[in-house]
Write a structure and sequence with these properties.
Strand content: 15-25%
CATH class of the largest domain: Alpha Beta
CATH topology of the largest domain: TIM Barrel
Helix content: 25-40%
Largest sheet: 6 strands, mixed
Distance between the termini: 47 Å
Strand order of the largest sheet: 2-1-3-4-5-6
Number of strands: 14
Number of domains: 2
Structural class: alpha/beta
């Protein structure tokens, strides 16, 4: 069905004959502990609306909508766009089927389909895949469908009839309008944020950069961003923060960058502007910062501007494992950064991954000991999941079933030959108990927890195998 046929059909949903084409941008419901406004869909919506398209964001995750309910809500749209992570690929596949039964054109975007564009098209039955950044590509697709013209020449777009021509990255991030915050209002989201226990509500995610310069083999960012990074201007970032505070009552900002502190003058200027504008906010980095980018002066400036929490991607306490996965960090530098942050009164969290190449029973114990020996307030212990697009996913292809249901939160996907499966399976729960069942850590959890977050915390304990799920 082409765009002209879509516009002319008699429908009972959004669209009426003669109306402009309407676009639905969708995140499906899936099992997760992380429920925050979808920034990617927010950016796409505001970009399309700036070009006079009519756009509705449907966040099935936040609204707890089934795929059938989503399909009914978008009946009559001219185009349905779905964001796709590997964690909820099964849900995306089912949703595409529901939408195709309504004869809707469907386009997929996000990391999973960027890594596997042709496979995703064939497997889901979607019409199009947008690779990497979606603003310019999706706008051109919408224009072509609305004008009933060919989509063949659109860079960054793939369908089953044509290949994928790469599109360059958007050079000037300040040229993008702010996300469509009216449709992803932080006040309408449940208290299950990125970072678990937080200080103030409502909280909003903000991103100040796009990309990553590093080459960690367990991460898909090197492929997605081609080892590049672009920065918004600090003024543009703080303008958005001020807008969120003024119009949406936001009291806490979560910077979701991969490399927020990579350029000290960037984050330093952001902190200075927050102070100069007297913005009463707290802020955190739940996605993590590089330990080797922090100095005591920078930490103090960040704290003065409202920073109270820093997360660190440590991954392992075995230097050989870190070197093998190209983490490009020294454990001594990590310890120094954590101790500096702790000394300055900043809460800290470490991310650790069990099951990377070279993992043994002894290296697991090294990691648990290290996490407890440095002054971390929290720690998250995950099992290695070979993500599509990562170097390890390419190297280990065939070592596990890449089409398996990925919804199990803590499930062994691959076992290094240096460790037994049973030991690896038990490692996260053992580490969680060893780390948190100490007076200082329990006190920290109790101090910052709120009654409204207790169900969320209990679910996290079940996810990690600390509590029985029965």
């Amino acid at each position: 069905m082409n765009a002209e046929e879509i516009r002319r059909r008699d429908v009972t949903g959004w669209a009426c004959r003669g109306d402009p084409m309407k676009i639905a941008l969708i995140r499906p419901h899936y099992y997760t502990h992380l429920i925050t406004p979808p920034l990617g869909l927010g950016y796409l919506a505001s970009y399309l609306k700036k070009a006079q398209h009519q756009v509705e964001i449907i966040d099935g995750l936040n609204l707890t909508l089934s795929n059938q309910e989503i399909a009914q809500r978008v009946k009559g749209a001219g185009l349905a766009g779905i964001t796709c992570l590997s964690d909820f690929y099964s849900e995306v596949k089912d949703l595409v089927g529901q939408l195709k039964r309504e004869n809707l054109p469907v386009v997929l975007g996000g990391p999973h389909v960027t890594a596997l564009p042709q496979e995703s098209l064939q497997d889901t039955g979607a019409d199009f895949v947008v690779a990497r950044e979606g603003e310019e590509t999706l706008l051109e697709l919408a224009n072509c469908l609305e004008n009933n013209s060919s989509t063949h020449a659109i860079k960054g777009l793939m369908n089953l009839q044509g290949g994928l021509t790469k599109r360059g990255f958007i050079a000037n991030l300040d040229s993008l309008p702010f996300p469509d915050w009216a449709q992803i209002d932080p006040r309408c989201y449940r208290k299950a944020p990125h970072g678990a226990i937080i200080k103030r509500f409502p909280a909003a995610p903000v991103i100040t950069t796009r990309g990553c310069l590093y080459s960690c083999t367990f991460c898909a960012s090197p492929y997605l961003w081609q080892n590049s990074i672009r920065f918004r201007s600090p003024e543009n970032v703080v303008d958005e923060i001020e807008y969120l505070v003024r119009d949406f009552g936001v009291r806490e900002i979560h910077f979701e960058d991969d490399n927020l502190t990579l350029k000290k003058e960037h984050i330093g200027r952001i902190a200075d502007l927050i102070i100069q504008r007297n913005l009463d906010i707290s802020w955190a980095t739940p996605n993590g910062v590089r330990a080797d980018t922090l100095t005591v002066d920078l930490i103090r400036l960040m704290k003065k501007s409202g920073c109270y929490f820093l997360a660190f991607g440590i991954e392992s306490a075995n230097q050989q494992i870190l070197d093998t996965v190209h983490k490009d960090i020294d454990l001594g530098v990590v310890e120094r950064a954590v101790r500096l942050s702790h000394k300055e009164g900043i809460l800290t969290q470490g991310f650790f991954i069990f099951g990377l190449p070279g993992e043994t029973e002894e290296t697991i114990q090294e990691t648990i000991h290290f996490a407890k020996a440095i002054p971390l307030d929290r720690a998250q212990f995950l099992l290695f999941d070979p993500l599509p697009g990562s170097q390890l996913w390419q190297e280990l292809e065939g070592a596990w079933d890449a089409t398996e249901d990925r919804r199990s939160y803590q499930e062994v996907k691959w076992v290094p030959p240096t460790i037994q499966r049973g030991i690896l399976e038990k490692a996260p729960a053992e580490a969680f108990r060893s780390f948190f069942f100490r007076p200082r850590q329990l006190f920290k959890v109790i101090r910052y927890a709120r009654l409204s977050q207790i169900p969320f915390l209990l679910r996290r304990l079940k996810d990690f195998g600390v509590l029985s799920s029965k």
